[in-house]
C-alpha cells in the first residue's frame, strides 16, 4: 500500500492504495464517484475520461499513485453547484445521450475539445476529436450537435466572464 | 494486474539507479502500452519506475539546427509545440495523429520509441529524419536504435532522455489507420535534407519500421509526387493480418508515400 | 397539444442523472460484505475436461469458494434454457444439447465457463484462477457456419450433424411453379456477418442472499428482469419467485444482448448463498466479446423470380444459421420466426419458400441482436431486389415501387398480415431528401476527382411488438408477450407508473410520462416511471423487438382508461351528479352542461379521503392495472437511401449522404424516435463497413477487443437526414409501430447497394472493408479503362 494526495473536484483527497490502483478505481471504489465508467480494457472507449490538470485522459490507463499533487476533475465536478455546465446542458438539449453510459466520458472529452480548439467547432473537427470515445446508442449524430452547441454556449459564458477557454472549463 | 512496487523518482539519474538496483524493474512513461498489457496480466514487472516526475526528461527546445524533445514529452506537447511546428511541421502533424486526444495527453515520445511497436508512428519519423536518441549512457542514431519488432538497441538499465531531430528542408507524413485500433496500418514519412531523401515505412514491415530505397532514389532525382508514379513496393516482407494482407499494405505504402510527399511539398 | 404531451420533443427527464454522473448502473452497486467472482474460462473451443485441480487455489489468500458444474448439480441448479421451441420439417422438435451454467465435463467454446472463484477481491480471485489446473483433452473444433453440418466432430451428442433443426416456411410447390414460369431469375449468395452487440456497459451481476428471510436479490444488467426471475426460478431452480427479487437498475445499452439469462448472473446469485456473502461480477470487454451472445451469422443462397414486365413472382431462400455452442434464451426464434416471415419485404410476392438449417458450432452462442432476424431478411430481399432491378435494366427505385404492396390488409405467403402502410410515400420523400435527380451529376463530379460514387436503396419492413401472445405461442414461444402496467395515483394527484417494459437508453421515463401527462392533463414532472424491479412491478415481459411503445405504452393507455373511469365515479360522487354526465378532459372532470368541475388532483384526494362516498358503492383509492395483449404484430416500414463515395486508391468508402424516411405510425416524442433511428443506422453501417466477429479454424475469437473488432466511431459516420411518414398502426390504441430496430434493419443493404452501384458490379461481402473495396475497385477501374 502507498499513499497519494491529490485534488478531486476541488477537494483535497489522500488515499492509501495498492500500487495497482488505477485512477478510475480510486474514483469509483475509494471515492464512490461512480459517474466515471469503464467500457473496455484496451484504452479505447473513453467511458473513463476525466481531466487531469485540465487535460482529458483515460482514467483506466493512469495509475493513481502517479497523480501526487495533481488536480482531477470528473463528471461529478463539472457543474457549478446546481448550475449545469453548458456542455452538460447541451447534451440534454440536443439528445446527445441515450443509455448514458458513455456520456460522462463523452462530456469530459467534449469540454476538452473546446479547451483545445475553441468555441467555434465544425462537424469534421468534432468527429475527428471524438476518436477516443465510443458510443453505441446515438450514432454520434446528436452528440456532434451537442458538442457544437455546448462549445458555443461555453464561448458565450466565457465572453460574459472575460475568461480564456481553459478556465471556463474547469 | 499482478502486484508490483511503485517508484516515482524525481530525476532520470534516480530512475537509472532504481532500474539498476531493483530486479525485474520496468520503466513507466505514459503507460498507454504498458498499463493495458499489465491489466491483461501479460506483463508482470516486480518494480515499476514511473518517470512522470522526472522534470529533466521533459521539455522541447531548439538547439541549433536540431529540435530536441525530452523523452517524457507527450504527443500533445509535441503536436502543439511552436518550436516543432516551425522547424518540422510534419513531426507535429505526426504527433497530433497518434491515438486519440486523451492518449496524446499521456503517451510520450520516449515510451513510444522505446517500445518500438511495429505500428507506432514515431519510429518512422526518427528513421526518416535521422534523429539521434540520447540515453543516460550514450547517443544512438535512429538507424542503430531500431533493431526489430518491439526491439531496440537499448540495454538493461538504459533510459532514453531525449531525442534530437535535425530539421529537414521538406518533410511529410501520411498514415492509413487500422480502422479498429487506429494504429498505423501503413504510415510513410518522407524527409529531404540537402540532397538526402529518406522514405520510411511503419505499420507494414514484418520487422518493424524500414526504409524504402526505390522511393528514396526516385525522390532524390526530383522531390515531387510525380516521381513516385508507377513505383510499387513489393509485398515480400510486408505484414499481413485480418485487416490488410501484404498486397494491399504494399499498395498502401505507395499511396501513403505520395500523400506524404504532397504534404511535404505543400501540394 | 400540451408542451409535454404526445408528439412533442420533450427533453428527457432521465438525462439529469446521466449528465451529472449520478446514473445507477449495476457495477455502481456495492453490497456490504461483497465478494468478487471471477470465471475461469475455457481457452479451447472444444475439449473434454479430464480433471480440475483447485486444491492449491482454494487455500490462497482471500478465496471464499471455488465451484464447478458439479457443485451446481449437487444443489439441483438446472441448466440454462432456450425458451422457443422450433420443430423441423418432419415435425420433430429441435435437438437441443444441455447448457450447464458451469461446464459438466466438456467445454464447447472459447470463453465457456469452467469454474467460478469467489474471493475478497477480484485480484485475489484471478490469482486463484491461475492456480487451478485444468486438464483438457482437446477435440477438433467446428467453426464454419456453412460446413458445420458436414463436420466429423459433433458439438452435442443430441444433435447429429450439428443440426438443431431443419425448418421451413412458405409454399414450396407454388414457389417452384412460379420459378418455372419466370422470365428472369436473380441469384445471390449472401453471408450475413457475425456481430458482437457491444453495449458500452459490460454485463454485470451482484447476487445477494438474506439469510434471515431466505430471499435472494439479483442486481443485473437485464432488459427484462421479470423474465430473468421467471427463468431463474421456474427452470434453473434458484428459488421460488416470491423468494427471488431481480433488479435491473440503469442499464447501459442492451441491443438484445441483455435479454438473455446467462451463466454469470445465475452463478452469482446462487453463490451468494453458498459463500454467505454478496457476490459481484462485472464483465471486462474481453469477456464480453467471448461470452455475450453474438448476432447474425447466416449463410444464404437466395433467388428472385420476375416476369417479363419486372413483376416479382416468387422468392426462395436457403439459409444456414449458426447458433453457436449452446442455444441461448431466444436463439431458435431468430433465424426462424423473426426471419422468414419478413421475406416478403414491402413487396407483393405471391410465392415464397424459405428453408433454414440451424447448426451448432464451437463458438459463442448466437441470439437476438438489434433487429434479430429482420436485418438478415431485409438484407436478402433488398440485395436481391436491387440486383434484379439492375439486371433488368430498371431504375431500382421504380422497380421497387412497381412491386410495392398497395392494398391493406395484405396477407403474405409467410404468415404476416400487414395491416397498414404507404410504402410509395416513404420512397418519394426519401428520393426528394437525397436529391435523386442530381445523382448523375454528383457521380460525374466524383469521377472527375478520381472517385467512384454510388447510391443504394433499402425498402425495409419489420414486424415489431413481438406479440400477440396467441400468435407467438402458436409459433413456439414459451412465454406470452403482452405487457403490464399499473398506474398509481397519489393522494395529491402525482402519479407513479409501474411498467414491465425496461429502459436501457430508450427514454421511457420521458415518453411514458408524456402519455400520462397528455391523458391526465397533469404536469409531466408529476409523473414518475418505475421499472426494472420485480418487487415493485408485478410482472412484465421487458424491452426488445421495438415493443415498449406499441405494447408497453398501450398497457399504460389501458390502465389510464381505468383510472379515468374510476375518477369519473369519484367525481360523480363529489359533484353529486350522475356518472354518465361526467366528462374528463385537460385534467378536469366536469358535469356536462354545467360549470361544476373537479380537477384531477382534487379527484385523487377525494378518492383517498373517501369522506364523500359510501364504501359499499365505491372503493377508496385511485390505482389501476392493466395487461395489454395486442391483436397483431406492428409493421414499421420505410426507405433508406445511402450515397457513398469510394476512393479507389485506398478503398475507403465515405458515406456522403443518408436519407431515412420511416413510418413508425404515431410518434410520441420525435426527438427520441430520431435518436433511435440514428443509433440503428450506425449499427447497420457498422455491420456493412466495419464490424465482424471472426474465429480462426481452431475456434479462437481473433476479434476479441476493440483493437481488432471495429466499432463505428464518430468520424466513420455522417450526419443523417431523417424524415417520417405516418400511417397509424390499427392494432393498438396509440397507433404506434415501434422504432428501435429500424435503422439496424434498413442500413446494411442500403450501404452495400450503394457500394456495388459505385463499383459497377453486383456483389461485395460485409463488412466492405477498405481492403475488400480496394480489391473490387481495381476490377472496376480495369473495366472503365477498357471501355
TrEMBL record, chain A:
InterPro entries on file: 2Fe-2S-bd (IPR002888), 2Fe-2S-bd_dom_sf (IPR036884), 2Fe-2S_ferredoxin-like_sf (IPR036010), 2Fe-2S_ferredoxin-type (IPR001041), Beta-grasp_dom_sf (IPR012675), Diverse_Oxidoreductases (IPR051452)
Species whose genome carries this gene: Bosea caraganae
Alphabetized GO MF terms: 2 iron, 2 sulfur cluster binding; metal ion binding; oxidoreductase activity
Pfam families listed in its UniProt record: Fer2 (PF00111), Fer2_2 (PF01799)
Lineage, highest ranks first: Bacteria, Pseudomonadati, Pseudomonadota, Alphaproteobacteria, Hyphomicrobiales
SUPFAM superfamilies: 2Fe-2S ferredoxin-like (SSF54292), CO dehydrogenase ISP C-domain like (SSF47741)
CDD domains: fer2
Gene3D superfamilies: 3.10.20.30, [2Fe-2S]-binding domain (1.10.150.120)
Record keywords: 2Fe-2S, Iron, Iron-sulfur, Metal-binding, Oxidoreductase
Superkingdom per UniProt: Bacteria
Full protein name: (2Fe-2S)-binding protein
PROSITE patterns on file: 2FE2S_FER_2
Domain named 2Fe-2S ferredoxin-type: residues: 2-78
TrEMBL record, chain B:
Domain FAD-binding PCMH-type: 1-170
Native organism: Bosea caraganae
InterPro entries: CO_DH_flav_C, CO_DH_flav_C_dom_sf, Diverse_Substr_Oxidored, FAD-bd_PCMH, FAD-bd_PCMH-like_sf, FAD-bd_PCMH_sub1, FAD-bd_PCMH_sub2, Mopterin_DH_FAD-bd
Taxonomic path: Bacteria, Pseudomonadati, Pseudomonadota, Alphaproteobacteria, Hyphomicrobiales
Coiled coil regions, renumbered to chain: none
Record's protein name: Xanthine dehydrogenase family protein subunit M
PROSITE patterns: FAD_PCMH
Keyword annotations from UniProtKB, A to Z: FAD, Flavoprotein, Oxidoreductase
Gene3D superfamilies associated with the record: 3.30.465.10, CO dehydrogenase flavoprotein, C-terminal domain (3.30.390.50), Uridine Diphospho-n-acetylenolpyruvylglucosamine Reductase, domain 2 (3.30.43.10)
GO molecular function: FAD binding; oxidoreductase activity
UniProtKB/TrEMBL annotation, chain C:
Domain Aldehyde oxidase/xanthine dehydrogenase a/b hammerhead: 20-140
One Pfam short name: Ald_Xan_dh_C
Tree of life domain: Bacteria
GO MF term list: iron ion binding; oxidoreductase activity
InterPro entries noted in UniProt: Ald_Oxase/Xan_DH_a/b (IPR000674), Ald_Oxase/Xan_DH_a/b_sf (IPR036856), Ald_Oxase/xanthine_DH-like (IPR016208), AldOxase/xan_DH_MoCoBD1 (IPR008274), AldOxase/xan_DH_MoCoBD2 (IPR046867), AldOxase/xan_DH_Mopterin-bd_sf (IPR037165)
Coiled coil: none
Keywords carried by this UniProt record: Molybdenum, Oxidoreductase
Keyword Transport: no
Stated name of the protein: Xanthine dehydrogenase family protein molybdopterin-binding subunit
